[in-house]
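Quick one:
INPUT:
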């Protein structure tokens, strides 16, 4: 009887050790992927809150889920177009996608959207302290009200994307005409040939 109770005690222990060691090997070979959901925050609100969407976008970006970060950043910008922080979040997510795929390999729509958002932040077009009209302002005056962190980051990103920042006399339209990538579109009409 003593041998049987000894086997009954050691079997669960050995089984537990075997399972623990096999899961340790499995965990060591897999890449860490955080389990998270981005839509758990602020679900009780009917109106989309740009701040919550921005936080969700930043969380997705930290978890290297760039597609979700772009989607949430766009939603934050759509919820409040005058929120420059939301524009920075969307532009940063788009910039990470450009870095990941390369400037030459990314679609022109992504590149153009990223550059346009960074230009809005750099020129201080939207927001409470908007100081320019169509990108034109008194030289140096817009810097009094600009957030240094956003403006410096926007300048670095614009220079990284297209090699230069806009001149103070250059309107947004003229600058973007020079630096945006052309988007190809195919339009047509299908004509049914009924010669049968």
């Amino acid at each position: 009887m003593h041998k049987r109770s000894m086997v009954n005690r050691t079997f669960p222990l050995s089984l537990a050790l075997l399972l623990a060691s096999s899961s340790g090997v499995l965990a060591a070979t897999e890449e860490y992927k955080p389990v998270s959901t981005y839509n758990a925050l602020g679900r009780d609100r009917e109106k989309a809150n740009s701040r919550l969407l921005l936080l969700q976008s930043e969380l997705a970006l930290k978890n290297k889920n760039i597609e979700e970060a772009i989607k949430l950043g766009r939603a934050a910008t759509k919820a409040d177009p005058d929120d420059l922080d939301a524009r920075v979040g969307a532009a940063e997510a788009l910039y990470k996608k450009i870095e990941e795929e390369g400037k030459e390999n990314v679609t022109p729509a992504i590149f153009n959207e990223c550059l346009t958002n960074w230009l809005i932040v750099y020129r201080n077009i939207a927001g409470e302290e908007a100081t320019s009209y169509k990108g034109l302002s008194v030289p140096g005056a817009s810097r009094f009200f600009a957030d240094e962190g956003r403006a410096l980051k926007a300048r670095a990103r614009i220079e990284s994307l297209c090699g230069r920042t806009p001149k103070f006399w250059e309107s947004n339209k003229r600058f973007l005409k020079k630096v945006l990538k052309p988007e190809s579109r195919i339009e047509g009409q299908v004509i049914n040939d009924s010669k049968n």
